[in-house]
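Journal club prep — side note

Before the paper discussion, L.F. wants everyone to see what a predicted structure for a comparable chain looks like in token form. Sequence:
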Amino acid sequence: MRERIAHELDVLARQSQFRALEIPKGINLCSNDYLGLASDPRLHQALLESINRVHQVGSTGSRLLSGNSSEWETIEREFAEFAGTDAALCFGSGYAANIGLLSSLLKPGDIVFSDALNHASLIDGIRLSGAEKVIYPHRDLRFLETALRARSGRPGASVIVTESVFSMEGDVAPIRDLLALAKANNAALVVDEAHATGVCGPHGRGIAAEEGAEREVLATVHTCGKALASAGAFVCGDVALRDYLVNRARTFLFSTALPPYLAGQIRAALEIVRGADTERSHLRELASNLRTKLKEEGIDCGTSSTHIIPVLLGSNERALHVAGELQRGGFAAKAIRPPTVPRGTARIRVSLTSKISIEQVCQLARAISAACQTFQTASAGAVHV
């Protein structure tokens, strides 16, 4: 086994796919702290007050054993109100929420239609379910409609699964169109709002809320570890869905509950997020400015329309070079490579936050352009030699 581990690590290194843990330094372009709340003194104070208020700092067990508390029941009601649904259930992370939701809802004999660029947690939840899966090309409604019709009338449930804001592309799922297809073909829709929560929609309530579709989808998943700068995730839907997950979702049943004081931090984050229209507006301006400047330099930003902007570079080597140059220039940037993204689409995933300035965005665009040029020059020199 040790020999196999060493061999696989060597293969990763030779393919420019080896990864190592690092502490970001410089202007952070890797952070999902989209509204800058991770360092917000209001959230820090709220956490301290919550720790002092609750009678224990450990949950002591799973929610069905000794880990339930009035703090979690209250914040679940408050989060459901925020999401625009009747109920919500807290999981330890977005990954656990997606796996628990999909692996319990879907069963062998069911059919799930999954966007090709869905997050790994959605993919893993589908795999664990044993349901038949149909992977449709990214946001390809025509393909999806054909696939749905081809399986119409078959026994078992049909479920469409999508992110709302795609984590590596920064584009947005056509939720209304997906709902129309779902209704026309007796299917349900599940939406992962991870990268939209706090940032998109009215008061940061997500894309489903922006479309007025909160109660039409089967479930929305809102993570707290990104724009809310907390931890955990909530699956939001009707009361029956919550009761079902309490009884069937293994990542809920067999996980120790999060500590009760964390509910106070999430509550404070929701309050701040509801009033963060200025930060959201600034974030949109930053993203628009960066996309415009990069496109002027002939740099491909894909189909991004949000605060997540992929700088598509193609090869692992080019992505690593550009990331290295950006790091030397004072930007914390990482190369995103396969298998996280499809082969041949290695990139820098620029994750903008409201703490970044317009001037820093301008500096970033210039630095990316210069790094691309130095790679091209170095490559031409290597070929010439």
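L.F.'s comment for the group: The chain has a mean pLDDT of 94. Keep this in mind when we get to the figures.
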